[in-house]
Structure formats: C-alpha cells, structure tokens
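Exercise 7 asks you to align residues with tokens for two separate proteins.
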Amino acid sequence: MKIGLLGFGVVGRGVYDITADMDDIQVAKVICLEDITLPDAEVTKDFRSILTDDSIDTVVEAMGGLHPAYEFVRAAIEAGKNIVTSNKALVCTYYDELIPLAEKMGVQFRCTAAVGGGIGWLSELERSRRVQPIERVGGIMNGTCNYILDSMTRLGLGYDEALKQAQALGYAEAKPATDVEGIDTWHKVILSSNIAFGVSLDSTTVPVAGISKITAEDVTTFTEHGYTCKLISTGKSSDGKYSAYVQPTLVTVGQPEAAVPSNYNLITLVGKYSGRMSFFGQGAGRYPTAYNVVQDCADLLHGKGFYCAYGEKVAAVNDDLLTYYVRGDLDAWLEDNTSERWGSAVITKPVSVSAMHNWLKEHPDAFIAAFAENTL
C-alpha cells in the first residue's frame, strides 16, 4: 500500500512514524504547508500530485476541519483511491455524500480513529453488529470534558480553573467550544449510531447540551447527593424508532462511568446477546490515534471497507422520559414540571428528552443534567 498523507500535524506525524518500519504500508507523499524534508517520502503542497499519482492507492486524511479536507477526500474517492480518516466532523457532516460515493466508486473507506482515538471503538462495533442487533451505544466520548468534570469533582476546582488546567496540559484547545459545548461528542454519537443501527441519523434531530455552564456549586450539590456529573452520549434503537442525544448526566458511585478519570473515554454498546460491553482508553493523543489510522490501512489490505452498508435517512425521536437537575430561570413549563428543589436548582418530574432540550434552547444560560438510567 502506498499512502498519500494529508497533513503532518499530531496524527499525521504519528502515522508516518508508525509506518516507517513496515514493509507493506508506505507513506509515499505528504501534504504539508511547512518546508520540511523527509528521508523516504516526497513532501508537497500540491494535492494534485497525490491525486494524479497512480502508484498511490490510499489517501490518509489527517488535516482536520471541514475544508479543504472535504474537497480533497471527495476528489480522492472520485479518482478511485481508498480513504482513511480520523476526522469525525468530516465523516458526520458529509456522511450522506461520502459513504454512498465510496460504494459507487468501489473504493474502501475507514474512520476508526474518528471515535475514541486509540480505543478502536468503531472496529469493535463492526464486529459486534455482524452477529447481533445493537440496542444502544454511547458513553463518555470526549476526554476534554471528562478531564474538566473530573478535576471539578476530585479537586474542587471551578470550571474556569479546570479548563485552564486542561488547556495547559494540551487536553483542551485555546478555543474549546467544540469540546465543552458537546459538538465533538455529538459528531461521535451520530457516527456511532449510524454504524450500530445501519441508518443515517438526521443530525438536526439530535440535541446536544454541553458543560460550559456548570459551576463549582453544582458539583458540590451533586457530591452531597451521591452523584458525579459526566458528559454522556446516548444512541438507542427500539421497535424501529431511534433516539440520540448528548447531555451532562448524573451517575452514582456504582456506575462504571463515575470512575472514569482524567481525559479517558468509556464507550459502551448494549447488544441483544452480549448485553453491555464497554471500551476504556485514551480518546486522543498522537500515537494512540495514529495507531488506529494505521490499523485501518491494514484492514484495507485485507479487504475491509466501511463498517456497514449505507442506510436510510431517519429522524431521532427522543421521547425517553428522564428526570433532570435544572439550574436556570423558572418559567411556567419548568414550574409545572418541578418535583423538588435542590438549593437554587430544581429536580424535574420525568419529562421527554426533546421537551427538556427545547426548553434549554429558550434558556441558553441554564444548566441541565439528566439523572442516568440504570444502564447505557
């Protein structure tokens, strides 16, 4: 396999390093905007030099972002080249376009590192769905949020202090909104649900609530009542209906999610026969992520394409009834659905996920956290 590598940042450099001593996988050309020299690969700023090179059969996209990553990946597919990417935003945003196009062109497309970094979650999900219906997927999918929430819980830090610490350690970006507002997790649960259930979820029907409005007082209140707050994603399939959402969630000490430390992930599937299976590990990092990119390249050599056939477009219903902790301005709807008060916050009666998130849209400064169900 000869690879055209798009990007030479954290993940791209890791892919190059891992493949350096491999006999059957070679990085032949690298797109890099900086002037660098590599001993065994051509460095170029011109994507067309990869696109028109017939010796390159696989393009590895490690640029991140949507543009020009989308344009490059689409062009590579149309040129008959296989694709491996770690870009969850790209795959989720253009799922309805890129996956059918890869099928049409007869090329292979893998993106295992897009969810879970070094865990290999999507490849395990692929193996599981071969022999059983998947009923549920989700869990802790973002290391930045987990680090912040873990630091607030264990160390008593405020949100701003925990975020600055995460940024200093390289766990959070200078502009962290994609992580802390739940968008990164949102992309991951949509992609996971698509593969688990063999559908294409309408992303506009998948609500998301992040952690940026949480306070130290919230965390103290949770601890006093025996709960830990985590940002948890959920995707469900039941009787032909689908649910998917991302929200802060209160878990008790006995639940596995409560013990997940630092920037780790814990991603779970519930299968008809296997029951619950959870996968724990680093959700990011140069070599853990690059390892799964290279594993995808090895899978291509063995004829493995995408994890499932492209499925029908479906809407998430999100009619699960959950109880919520809500700190925000009371209005008539919230008053009518309040069962008790925890200080300045209220605990709701069971309300649907969709109703709670619709309320949150009208009260963007509020903070909500669902009480976890017994299992993911």
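Second protein for Exercise 7:
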Amino acid sequence: MTKPTILITGASTGIGATYADRFAKRGHDLVLVARDEARLNALATKLSSAHGVAVDVLPADLTDAGQLATVETRLRDDAKIGTLINNAGAGLNGGFVDQSIDAVDRLVALNTTSVVRLASAIAPRLAQAGEGAIVNIGSVVGLVPEFGMSVYGATKAFVLFLSQGLSLELGPKGVYVQAVLPAATRTELWGRAGADEASLPPMMEVNELVDAALVGFDRRESVTIPPLHDGTLWDAFDQARQAMLPNFGSVHPAPRYTAA
C-alpha cells in the first residue's frame, strides 16, 4: 500500500525538521512548510537523497492570511496528504504588560489561528476517507499558568483543548488526533523569542522529544507528554476533570455559592 504523504509546518529546523527526518526514514513522502525557503530546500535535498522519498517545499508565513490560504488549499485538495503535523509555533519573551499587542497578535495568529485553519482544511477529507492523522504540537506550559508565560500558555492550552475535542469528534470517523506536550526543548524558538540562550537551563534534546512523541503516535495516544515520567498523574488529572462533568448540568448554583 502507498504510504500517505506527511505535511509538516515549521519544518525548516528543530522539531519540524526532526519529524521530517523520522517520517522520511519510514518511507513517507513529505510536504515541508516554513518561511525559510533556503533551509527547506536544503532539507528536502538531504532527505530525498538519503531516503528516496519525494519532498515538496511549500514556503509560507502562516501569520499571513494569503500564504496560510495556500497551505490550506494544498491540504484540502491533495488527496495524497494523509497526516498533518501542526508544528509551527513561536514564543514571546517578557511579561504580559511588557509585550506589545502587535507581537501578541502575531503569536496568537501563528499558535492558534493557523493550527485550527490547517486542521479545518484537512479534517473533512480525512473524515470522508475514514483514515488519517492530525498531530498538534502544544506545550506543558498550557497546563501551568504558574510559569508566567500567560499568552503563550493560553495558546498552548487552546491547542490541547482543540486536539481533545477533535479526537472525540473525529476519532469515531477513523481520524487519529494527537496532542504532543513538550516541556523545554532545545530549539531555535528561544532565541527567536528574545531569550538569552546562554542563560537557559538544561533542556530536552529535540531528537529525544520527537522520538518519544512518535512512540505515542504509534500507540495512538490522544495526549502525549514526553517529559512526564508517571503517566498515571495525567490519567488522574483527566479523571478529576471528568468527575466534574455531572455538575455542569445543574440549573441552580451549588450550595457553597448560596447566601447563608
């Protein structure tokens, strides 16, 4: 059987480039999306030569509506693409009161709007085919407001929720949806966000992160958290959330909110 083509965003370096390498080794053709065309071309040449796969380059800035639409069209129309790796993302240095609203707007556009639009472009076709996968790269920061990365964390909480919702909706139709939640990983994101890279703490290496994420992918996990050693902690967290659900149908306030 012909293996599906994988479209990967943010593919010129870091997590995206590593996903590209791993799927090329598995014999999948690729469509690589990122802003840096020169890097994409170099990676495409390397992977096609090493693994004998077809690698197409699609340069695009996903914060630009027109360029984003080009990628959406490719996902919508190219029946060979069976997996979307929604990896493109950015961080933003500093606290909320110090961040410019224009920078915040760009961050939200890349980390949330592009993710949902690309998923929306491919999901109907995958659901109709009854197969395929959408992988959304989130972050553990989306679970931890204490880290002080308010806007970035909010975008990654969105990615997690979107992934869980899509998993419930699309899973019965044969489409696998995975949220991957890395912790700090050694990529270029930090420097681009304005951090002093020399002062950064120890981090997970990108090869280890992607290899762990692919173990979760092969196991068809809905949420994969590579740095979490005790998986029962996530299970307990999710079970506590679900235990609250019966209360949400109540038509009256809980007694703890009524006047004495």
